[in-house]
Amino acid sequence: MTLTNVEKIVKNLKQSEDEIVINENSSQATYVRTVLIRKFPSTVSAGFLDTIDSLFEKGNIQVRTSLEFAPTKLKWNRSMKWKLKRLRNNLRNETETEMIRNEEVEALEALRGLKDAQFKKNAKLFDIWAYVKLSSTDESELNAATRTLVELLENLDAKVELFEKEQIQAFQQSLLINSKNKKGKEFLEKYYGLLAHDSAASILYPFIHGNIGDDQGVYIGNRAEDNQFTFLDICNPDDQDAKNMIVLGTTGSGKSFFMKVLAVGLMIAGVKVFVFDVDGEWKEICENVGGVYVDQSFQSGKYADPFRLLPWLEEVDKDCIQHNKERLQKSIETVHRTLELLTGGSVPDDEYNAIDRTIMQLHEDAGIEPNDTTTWDKFDGPKPTIHRFYEQLNIRAEHDEAAYRFKEKITRYFEGTQRKMFEQEDDQLLYEDAPMVVYHLGQSINQKDDRVAAVKMNLAFDQVWANIQHIKLLGEQYSAVICDEGQRLLFNETASDYVYTLATTIRKWNGQIILGTNTPEVLLKGGTKGGQGLWENTPIKVFFWMEESALTNITAHTNIPSEIVEFIDTQFKTNVFVLRYNQKYDFLKVHVPPEEEVLYHTRGLKKKAQTEFMEKAEEQRLQRAL
Ligand SMILES: Nc1ncnc2c1ncn2[C@@H]1O[C@H](COP(=O)(O)OP(=O)(O)OP(=O)(O)O)[C@@H](O)[C@H]1O
Ligand SMILES: [Mg+2]
What we know:
CATH architecture of the largest domain: 3-Layer(aba) Sandwich
Bound molecules: adenosine-5'-triphosphate, magnesium ion
Radius of gyration: 29 Å
């Protein structure tokens, strides 16, 4: 059912007796009854809701169970404490004539349990609504089915709400709980969900499709099951949780498409978006939204100089003070990292020291005194740059064998065929008015270019970082950094370590990182330490289809339920993804109007390579199936 279809149906709904009728005057009239499970048995097993499905396997009845989650902030304020106290007192003062009601005992236990979970286990609380929708073309059969359902649930010590007068609202609610209509809110206040902490909620989920969107924030996709629009609040400055995201999937599975839609959603929400674009596929969308496209690709010859210090910040808080103190050290690290990335491996100690001494000499020549911050930004001598570094390394190489060895490793980037790498310094740092800034960093044609893109990304990150800090100090605006082809940032230990540090500190600067990659290995055990840290500390994960080996690798390192893995495995060529958030899963797909869709397509060569890859993958799948 498409969304417009659903809307049309909802508009023409009519309640007759206790159910609603769809297509009333046609030969295909369908009767639908929606009920809500109001009370669950005290112990719910994973297959609980499946029992309902299996109840109506035979006959002319369709069943659809849907679970809705809404994160709840249960406040242990005075009225809640008072409630707990009253229940406790009632229990204590129970006499033979004044027996405490069963419901009160249950309420007390439930409240205690939630409080414990929230405080001792740091669990999140959820409101859960479990709707069961029965439909049939035969009205009497539907009535009989409803009775059977009520009986089953009552036998299990559960209870249903039948909505005798509010079938239309219930039907709508189970479809569009996330739509921001007020009517829905009133309805939910009357028929509140079951309050549970996350581990209880996860028993029901992920075995049933549900919705973990929280009705605020940014469009993240439509539910695969019923097309319901889903939003996630991933850029709320008041929220202290880091909302970084990892997007995984094989080439051509839809990662970039998804991230482009997400980027637009973020911009609509007022978030400033920075993108690292390796393949030049973000140009169209960037221009279309009035963004700035910064070409720092190899061909352009433009680069950000690693010696450049991040700007000094007004010391409005301790983060700014600390930042100011660390600026010189950070640039030294950037220089080391850049040089290491250029050689594509790790640097032996003696070569590292030769580099280090050259850096020190450059600082000295410029009058930079490490212990005196006032000397860092004005130069009494030649300004330190990567070119001056190479020049001085050459001089050192005449008497220092390690310096010579290292110089030989990087000479092609300064004097050889790769000298376009550092041809023209791009010293523009801040882009205040653009809603989106895209750094074009190279073309991925061969292995060497991988290295180029890694270096460029690392250097551009300093520029992005300066913008993020600047934005935070200007006001409340939030920033997001999208690293498409993020495996390049996780090139080796040093680079990954750097990205991991950025990911864990970006929240302080009101920012988040969204990292997409077709190479999950870089994030798992066996990959780099920084990559693993990133994986473990990223709360939101998105899985598109991937090859069996990648999927096996992920399941070996993460506790993803086998149902979810199987689901991912069936999403070949569908562009459907699994969203993992707060330990829960949802199945979604982004939908955009056709005139917008053209902006998100990957173009030319890349598309051809993707098609070829997908054809090969399909062949392999077929062979496996035979
Ligand atoms: N939700 C969608 N709706 C319509 N088309 C889509 C959708 N998602 C992806 N596509 C199509 O699939 C193509 C490939 O998707 P995309 O470029 O996003 O893959 P990718 O995962 O980023 O691949 P790579 O790892 O090679 O960069 C897109 O050009 C687009 O045509
Ligand atoms: Mg892509």
